[in-house]
């Protein structure tokens, strides 16, 4: 016996945040073989003839601003009437939640919360970023290559070095991945110093790598106290949204000497109100993070005495949340500020 099922093509490449939808014939035996087990099954399992509510502490689900947007954020003409059916909406959101919580959900987002504590209480227990698994990937991969979103940063960093900059403060720079990778494509001044601010585990791995590579220009700190920082260039890529109590504008105001150049990359900026969401970082680790209002974020840095010189899209990073599809956006952002 067979059934016709609408199936979300969850295994398609996500480089551009693309999803697909198709109709396939699926036997009951095959469907049962692919059903999730364990923790994910508790979320995904549904009785055949009744609606099973989402977990009591699940994030709120709002009404789509576009009635043809399916609950996983995909445009499907003619879906508006079906989207009003609680059974279907609950089914799609539940399916995407199960995907998010699974090992295949790395990089995905889910939920809207008021605080980090509220988001953390909802998430399954995990160690976050302070573990060697994250750092090992950066040592093996990110120190060896650059990505499309790195090129705007490299361009403005080269301009900064050309205008006399000789020191870099790299917030969340892992094991100094930018220092190692960028040198393959640009020349650093011989007297450059590169200070990385990171979590304790990553600092230890970074110091070991620097010793092996003879990178005497690189140093590490796990302190966010910028009162002793006087670097010419500040960098931060894909990290500021994960800092619960730290704002870049506050770090700039406390600096011993404000930097001449500020390079930010892979920031979740959009036109709506700031909120807290969650991310499946790599399939096993879950973390809360901010999604910032673009205009207010830029204005806060400009108020510290800076001018926005350049901005760029980072389409390799997208924000798609099946529980809040009206807040989705197609690309993260990069920003370059210069002190006035």
Describe the model.
The chain has 340 residues and is α/β, with parallel strands linked by helices. The protein has 11 helices and 13 strands. The strands form 3 sheets. It has a 7-stranded mixed sheet with strand order 6-5-4-7-8-13-12, with helices on both faces. Strand 10 (275-280) and strand 11 form a beta hairpin. The longest helix has 16 residues, at 86-101. The protein is globular and about 65 Å long. It starts with a strand and ends with a strand. The relative contact order is 0.15.
Short structural description:
By secondary structure, the chain is of the alpha/beta class.
Q: Measured on Cα atoms, how large is the radius of gyration?
A: 22 Å
Number of helices: 11
Q: Which secondary-structure class do the elements indicate?
A: alpha/beta
Strand count, sense and barrel status of the largest sheet are:
7 strands, mixed
Ranges where pLDDT stays below 50 over 5 or more residues in a row are 1-55, 59-80
Strand order of the largest sheet: 6-5-4-7-8-13-12
Summarize model confidence as the mean pLDDT.
79
Classify the helix fraction into a percent range. 25-40%
Terminal CA distance reads 71 Å
Describe the global form: globular
Order of helices and strands: EEHHHHEHHHEHEHEEHEEEEHEE
Count the beta strands: 13
Strand-residue proportion: 15-25%
Summary keywords:
340 residues; alpha/beta; 7-stranded mixed β-sheet; 29% helix; disordered N terminus
What is the strand and helix layout of this fold?
Layout lengths: L1 E7 L12 E7 H6 L4 H7 L35 H4 L2 H16 L7 E5 L2 H7 L9 H11 L8 H12 L4 E5 L5 H6 L10 E5 L2 H14 L4 E4 L11 E5 L10 H7 L6 E7 L1 E2 L4 E6 L5 E8 H9 L3 E9 L17 E8 L1
């Amino acid at each position: 016996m067979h059934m016709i099922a609408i199936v979300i093509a969850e295994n398609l490449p996500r480089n551009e945040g693309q999803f697909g939808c198709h109709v396939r014939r699926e036997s009951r035996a095959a469907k049962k073989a692919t059903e999730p087990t364990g923790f994910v099954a508790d979320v995904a399992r549904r009785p055949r003839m009744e609606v099973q509510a989402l977990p009591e502490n699940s994030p709120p689900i709002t009404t789509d601003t576009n009635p043809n947007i399916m609950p996983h954020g995909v445009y499907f003409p003619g879906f508006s009437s079906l989207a009003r059916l609680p059974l279907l909406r609950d089914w799609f959101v539940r399916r995407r939640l199960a995907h998010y919580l699974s090992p295949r959900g790395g990089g995905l987002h889910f939920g809207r919360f008021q605080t980090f504590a509220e988001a953390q209480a909802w998430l399954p227990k995990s160690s976050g970023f302070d573990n060697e698994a994250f750092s090992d990937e950066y040592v093996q991969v990110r120190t060896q290559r650059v990505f499309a979103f790195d090129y705007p940063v490299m361009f403005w960093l080269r301009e900064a070095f050309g205008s006399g900059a000789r020191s870099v403060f790299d917030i969340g720079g892992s094991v100094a991945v930018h220092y190692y990778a960028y040198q393959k494509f640009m020349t650093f001044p011989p007297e450059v110093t590169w200070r990385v601010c990171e979590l304790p585990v990553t600092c230890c791995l970074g110091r070991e790598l620097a010793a092996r590579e003879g990178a005497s220009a690189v140093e590490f700190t796990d302190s966010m106290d910028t009162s002793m920082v006087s670097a010419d260039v500040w960098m931060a890529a894909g990290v500021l949204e994960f800092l619960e109590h730290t704002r870049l504008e506050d770090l700039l105001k406390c600096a011993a000497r404000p930097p001449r150049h500020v390079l930010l990359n892979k920031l979740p900026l959009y036109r709506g109100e700031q909120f807290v969401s969650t991310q499946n970082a790599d399939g096993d680790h879950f973390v809360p993070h901010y999604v910032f209002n673009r205009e207010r974020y830029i204005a806060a840095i400009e108020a510290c005495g800076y001018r926005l010189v350049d901005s760029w899209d980072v389409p390799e990073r997208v924000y798609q949340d099946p529980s809040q599809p009206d807040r989705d956006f197609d690309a993260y952002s990069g920003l370059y500020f210069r002190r006035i």
